Amino acid sequence: MTGFLFQLTFWLTVPFWGLMIFAPTAPVTSRIVSSPLIAVPPLVVHAVLVAAHLPQLWATMSSPDLDTLREFLATSWGASAVWAQVIAWDLLIGAWMYRESRRLGLHPLLMGPLLVLTVVLSPFGFGLFLAVRAACDRPDRATTVVTGQ
Fold first, then answer.
1. Which of 19, 27, 48, 109 is the most interior residue, by most CB within 10 Å?
2. CA distance linking residue 56 with residue 61, whole number of Å
């Protein structure tokens, strides 16, 4: 059952990533990705995985040390629970990147690869997006958006 939940976690997020990468300008994409509820499916998997292990999870996370965390991650349910959490947070980061890219008017051919990189290696994709955002989000542009001038 744990192996199935591990595999299911990513597939529950694929439709959202697909919309952001392959249909970024579709009105439905913006409506769906604007909701933080897109993270609920992998978080439900997380809840199912940890429900029977809450005392162990609490002990690991409330007073973390490397050896305790290593033991936790060595269990199939622990690794799968962390995977579900990471997938949920990556999706929220990707959704924020998508919304910011739309606000900044970034081209989908730039954002598609950045979102794919975020799916696979989120710290790199997110970091690169932050650099692109900093270069494109000039103070004079923000003033124009706020004041309409």
1. 19
2. 9
